[in-house]
Specification:
The chain has twelve helices and 19 strands. The protein is of the alpha/beta class and 469 residues long. It has a seven-stranded parallel beta sheet. The chain has a six-stranded antiparallel beta sheet with strand order 10-11-12-18-14-15, with no helix packed on it. A four-stranded antiparallel beta sheet has the order 13-17-16-19, with no helix packed on it. Helix 8 runs parallel beside helix 9.
Length: 469
């Protein structure tokens, strides 16, 4: 069973903002309707408390790092490669990431335009990246002998960078966890003594450590609740200890936000918008979330389109890298983040203080954000030609700019031959640099001299007159 099967039901909840069942599950009286400084309202209710940082810092770095970085194949190395537990735990004797420098990670993040970080504290293999008192299988009992979470939290606090913590509920090392051979579990182990109640006590104490020993934490990212066990008291404890922490929906209750993963979740991919917080997650590598020595990487355009697809719908985006066993972010991954950072910086205006409204245009593959009298047109799908007709808009903007380059866009309102039946002219963008910028998602900024409600006119315009700008 693949990871995508576990999150299938999660995706339907996290992604389908247009589905009445999900919207109905919310108690709207407990939320505030966000209104930006420009007066544009979002469909996604804000929390109205310290968790609202989540809506201001919408692009973050995900980091999968642990013992699995040493063999450099996959973060689920032990399970996918069928490595016996007795062999896998020996990797702890090699754990000595002397080149780990959290400042370098944060430098890269800032260059990439990322505004918060989520790190794996314990993945499915059970190895803990902090000074936990609940198990000896942790970074302190290795040649490294340093608290990774402590080092990163200190660096984040110094820079005022929000730190979120990932924690896997499934555990292939803890003897009380009931490994029953279900998805993302080991088969029963002879040295185990399965006891779910004891495991939950272990888990809660670890969560308490993470939420009390490292200063302010801004998020808790659960994963792999294989038994689908419900216990709202766990998230209640996190909220009490860390009131600014947003909590995802893969834990012991609904949490605060949905987590569509990679490109698996069609409801999230196809939704016009969301009415509950969403944080999509993706990795730069196509095979692994952890470090893989011979990784295949997604194209820049695929990642740009993925990022744009969520940011343009008022959602968050978490992009993952897997550091090496030495603690370095691989050069290929770092280069991707830097290139994406340059692209995002150029089009960032289209995500800030805007309202999503992709239903305004009747064009597949195009997303829309708007602000006052400005329309941002996100050409999310690969362009098949160098022009696009923005049906049903038929008003010429006073200014049209391609945000990627800052250069003017050639645009016109006129009748195209394909619209001869209706005899209705529409706004067209022409001569776009689709060949020169084939590996980028283009975003057009269109500024009008009237409210956006008036740019779609019911009356027909004389078809023998071409309006150009």
């Amino acid at each position: 069973m693949k990871r995508r099967e576990l999150i299938k039901s999660t995706a339907a909840v996290a992604a389908a903002s247009t589905l009445p069942g999900w919207a109905g599950a919310m108690n709207r009286s407990d939320y505030l309707l966000f209104e930006s400084s420009q007066g544009m309202k979002s469909k996604i209710p804000r929390f109205g408390d310290g968790r609202d940082w989540f809506f201001e810092r919408r692009y973050g770095m995900f980091v999968h790092w642990g013992l699995y970085a040493i063999p450099g194949w996959h973060e689920q190395h032990q399970w996918r490669a069928r490595v016996p537990r007795a062999e896998f735990v020996k990797l702890a004797d090699q754990w000595n990431p002397k080149k780990f420098n959290p400042e370098q990670w944060l430098d890269l993040m800032e260059e990439a335009g990322m505004q918060y970080i989520t790190l794996t504290t314990k993945h499915h293999d059970g190895f803990c990246m902090w000074d936990t008192k609940q198990t000896s299988f942790n970074t302190m009992n290795t040649p490294y002998k340093k608290d990774i979470i402590g080092m990163l939290s200190d660096a984040c606090h110094q820079r005022k960078m929000p730190l979120c913590l990932y924690y896997s509920i499934a555990d292939w090392n803890q003897p009380n966890y009931p490994n029953l051979g279900r998805h993302h579990e080991l088969p029963p182990q002879p040295q185990d003594s399965p006891d779910w109640d004891k495991y939950m006590l272990f888990l809660k104490e670890q969560v308490r450590e993470l939420c009390t020993n490292y200063g302010e934490i801004h998020g808790f990212w659960w994963d792999m609740n294989v038994p689908v066990y419900k216990d709202p008291s766990v998230n209640a404890m996190i909220r009490k200890l860390q009131p600014k922490a947003v909590i995802n929906n893969r834990g012991f209750d609904e949490g605060d936000f949905g987590t569509p993963e990679r490109d698996y979740d069609n409801p999230a991919t196809d939704a016009k918008g969301f009415d509950k917080p969403v944080e999509a997650c993706q990795s730069v590598g196509m095979e692994s979330w952890g470090y893989k020595k011979d990784e295949d990487f997604y194209s820049d355009r695929h990642l740009e389109a993925s990022i744009d697809k969520y940011l343009a719908r008022d959602a968050n985006y978490l992009l993952n890298v897997g550091p090496t066993g030495e603690g370095l972010i691989p050069p290929e991954s770092a280069a991707i983040l830097k290139r994406l950072g340059k692209w995002k910086k150029s089009v960032d205006e289209s995500y800030l203080g805007v309202q999503p409204d992709s239903e305004l245009l009747t064009i597949p593959g195009i997303l829309v954000t708007k602000n006052e009298q400005t329309l941002f047109v996100h050409l999310n799908k690969p362009m098949v030609g160098n022009g696009v007709k923005l049906k049903p808009v038929n008003v010429l903007p006073v200014k049209a700019t391609l945000l990627n380059t800052g250069k003017p866009i050639d645009c016109v309102v006129n009748l195209a031959p394909s619209d001869h039946a209706s005899q209705q002219p529409y706004l067209r963008l022409r001569n776009l640099p689709v060949n020169e910028m084939a590996n980028s998602v283009l975003v057009a900024k269109l500024e009008f001299d009237r409210p956006l409600a008036q740019i779609i006119q019911a009356k027909k315009i004389e078809t023998n007159i071409e309006l150009t700008k």
